[in-house]
Write a structure and sequence with these properties.
CATH topology: Pyruvate-ferredoxin Oxidoreductase, domain 3
Radius of gyration: 16 Å
CATH architecture: 3-Layer(aba) Sandwich
Number of strands: 6
Structural class: alpha/beta
Strand order of the largest sheet: 2-3-1-4-5-6
Largest sheet: 6 strands, mixed
Helix content: 25-40%
Shape: globular
Strand content: 15-25%
Distance between the termini: 28 Å
CATH superfamily: Pyruvate-ferredoxin oxidoreductase, PFOR, domain III
Number of domains: 1
């Protein structure tokens, strides 16, 4: 199979590394050659974080270049806008509509851009924008935004819900298992 590329972008502390780990575990169980890399970002809360997940018959590099991402999963709208040039023609962005102000906005040096969803769509990009924070809170924790977004992403992959649930079971502590399965199901149910 041709190599597929998924970028997971967000802000430190949102769980993008757990999301890439979950996706990576699922892909490994399906026999794909896979490369996962946190290419750049800040591990502390607030910094931009980017993780690349590449899979196929044979993958030689973990890096996704501009114009190569089949999917960009974004935990925050400004991060979605920041990485649109990495999306390939016909690719899709799955984004949480949540707004997290970066430091220049917090300090008053800049303003958070308005109408990002509309601007992304106006550029001809296939965008699925969802209030994943509300769904995560419905599942039981605001920290489950990452799993809600994985639930949405799952609709574009040919893996069973049971396979996804097994990946969740091997990625999260048992005490958070039911919460995360509920968050995944809420994301998957999005039309």
């Amino acid at each position: 199979m041709q190599t597929k590329n998924v970028m997971i972008v967000g802000v430190g502390g949102q769980g993008s590394l757990l999301a890439s780990k979950l996706l990576g575990k699922l892909l490994l169980t399906k026999g794909y050659d896979i490369k996962v890399s946190e290419v750049h970002g800040m591990s502390q809360r607030g910094g931009s974080v980017v993780t690349y997940v590449r899979f196929g018959d044979k993958v030689y590099s973990p890096i996704i270049d501009k114009g190569e991402a089949d999917f960009i999963v974004s935990f925050e709208m400004l991060e979605a806008a920041r990485y649109t040039e990495f999306l390939k023609p016909g690719g899709k962005i799955i984004a949480n509509t949540q707004q997290i102000n970066p430091m220049p906005v917090i300090t008053g040096a800049q303003e958070y851009p308005e109408a990002l969803s509309e601007k992304i769509k106006a550029a001809g990009i296939d965008l699925v924008a969802v209030d994943a924070l509300s769904l995560a809170e419905e599942a039981g924790s605001a920290k489950a935004v990452n799993i809600v977004l994985m639930g949405i992403l799952s609709k574009y992959f040919d893996f069973t819900e049971d396979e996804w649930n097994k990946a969740i079971e091997s990625s999260v502590p048992p005490k958070f298992l039911e919460l995360n399965k509920k968050a995944f199901a809420l994301g998957k149910a999005i039309e």
